[in-house]
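Data follows
____________
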Amino acid sequence: MSLNARLLRRGMGWWPPFLGAGIRVSSIADDFREAEVELKLGRFNRNYVGTYFGGSLYAMTDPFFMIMLLHNLGGERVLPEFQMDVVHADDGSPVARVHKVLYVRLKPRHRAS
């Protein structure tokens, strides 16, 4: 994939799901092994009781697992599991924990014969 990390970070700032939820991509490492994403509590991403809407929390983590694996894996079928903590920027206190299992494999045309 030829898209570099800086261009991806900038482009994701205009991606409608992130733009609408107030999600901001602060950085993506050049080797695609780390990403930092921010979500400020606002009128459009809070739930009924005034805390972060769970869908916004999940949205801020969801695309990065696939993107990071696309740039770093190359083998046959793999089922990596990830656990990510979403923490409050002010004091580092936990906000949510995301657990995700991905199914990754090369497309048939890219597999070794």
